[in-house]
Design goal:
The chain has two domains: 56 residues, Arc Repressor Mutant, subunit A, CATH 1.10.10; 78 residues, Alpha-Beta Plaits, CATH 3.30.70.920. Helices cover 43% and strands 18% of the residues. It has a four-stranded antiparallel beta sheet. Keywords: DNA-binding, Transcription, Transcription regulation. This is Lrp/AsnC family transcriptional regulator.
Length: 166
């Protein structure tokens, strides 16, 4: 389901993405709307599934897990769910996505160093259902995950549609 977003919704999302700790009162002040109006928009964004979490972002590298890798897994037929359950038991596997292409799963993995990465990889390939794996070690992160440019693009498209509709 795709939510219909208005300019104010996009402005709220941008502020939340840029400064999640500022709070509803501060967002309302910056956007020049009543606090109740802003709270209603936040509630709407949560109900529609656009705003999924207020969780803090925690950097594993700052906690001693400086290694980052992506592991592609090819699975035995019919083993997807069982393999995902096994991978969830490995703390260093921080994300698992089912993908199309040469692999069945793409996993994001953290490790303390190369020796630790090897240990984690051994746990992964020993998981039920894993037939083959390939690993890509991240040398450096050049662009961290962000949705702010996407929000800006949607805002611009909304403004263009509004101008054309007049």
């Amino acid at each position: 389901m795709s939510a219909t977003l208005e300019a104010l919704d996009l402005d709220v999302l941008r502020l939340i993405a840029e400064e999640p700790r500022a709070g509803v009162r501060e967002y309302a002040r910056r956007l020049g709307v009543a606090r109740a109006t802003l709270q209603a928009r936040v509630d709407k964004l949560q109900r529609s599934g656009v705003l999924v979490s207020w969780r803090p972002q925690i950097d594993p590298a700052a906690m001693g897990y400086a290694g980052l890798a992506y592991v592609r897994l090819q699975l035995a037929q019919g083993m997807l769910e069982r393999t995902v359950v096994a991978l969830a038991d490995i703390p260093e596997v921080v994300e698992v996505n089912a993908v199309a292409g040469n692999a069945d799963l793409l996993c994001q993995v953290v490790a303390k160093d190369n020796a630790d990465l090897e240990r984690v990889l051994q746990l992964i390939i020993a998981s039920d259902g894993v037939e083959r794996s390939s690993t890509e070690v991240v040398l450096s992160r050049r662009l961290k995950p962000t949705v702010v440019p996407l929000i800006a693009q949607m805002h611009s498209e909304l403004q263009q549609r509004t101008v054309l509709a007049r």
